[in-house]
Amino acid sequence: MARLLLIEDDLTIRTPLIRALRERGHAVAAASTAMAGLRDALEDRPDLVVLDLGLPDLDGRELLRMLRAVSSVPVIVATARDDEAEIVRVLDAGADDYVVKPFTAAQLDARARAVLRRGPSGADAQDPALVVGGLRVDPRSRQVTLDGVVVELTPREFDLLHHLAGRPGQVVTKRELLTEVWQIPYGGADKTVDVHLSWLRRKLGENAQQPRYLHTVRGVGVRLEAPAEQP
């Protein structure tokens, strides 16, 4: 049973969604304001947060930034804002996934399970650590180190890096990443991959212009490989 925290101020959405998610086997708590949601997320430590952006006391994107400063709990943003620029801003603020209103409880449940099944209790927990150059990706502890130094990643960033590290030297397409990491079996969301790759590069101390581990193959995808030996 997963413990979900639903931060949603609209009672007509919140009440039936709580009921439907509970019927699907989740334990669901709810908050109707940003600050109450932040408090509950920190005190109760849910497995996943579902966050509405249009909250009465604080914009949900700002709450997401506050939450990301103190927690790596997976967050699915529920928003009526369906333009690409807004979705990129939501991902850039630290969301692991998003759903656009109106959505069904079945759709949200599927996305929640896709995020949660990639946690340390899943199949990846038995996998050995992956080593590429000075990069070590351990699915059992879900810890990444670079040259012996711990790299703090969000759950989605870890999943992305783990997938790439399992295919060192291979070009992995964005379509494959969307299917295997995001559980989205169709294209049209390339920006999602691009934003997360940008975060990974920053945390690995590199950028697209001067890559060390993450190499973009224009029009195809991305390749993770160990840096060349310096003379």
From TrEMBL:
Residues 3-116 form the Response regulatory domain. One of its GO terms (molecular function) is transcription cis-regulatory region binding. The keyword Phosphoprotein applies. Residues 127-226 form the OmpR/PhoB-type domain. Residues 127-226 bind DNA. One of its GO terms (cellular component) is cytosol. Pfam families: Response_reg, Trans_reg_C. GO terms for biological process: regulation of DNA-templated transcription. The modification 4-aspartylphosphate is found at residue 52. Keywords: DNA-binding, Phosphoprotein, Transcription, Transcription regulation, Two-component regulatory system. The keyword Flavoprotein does not apply. This is DNA-binding response OmpR family regulator. The lineage of its organism: Bacteria, Bacillati, Actinomycetota, Actinomycetes, Micromonosporales.
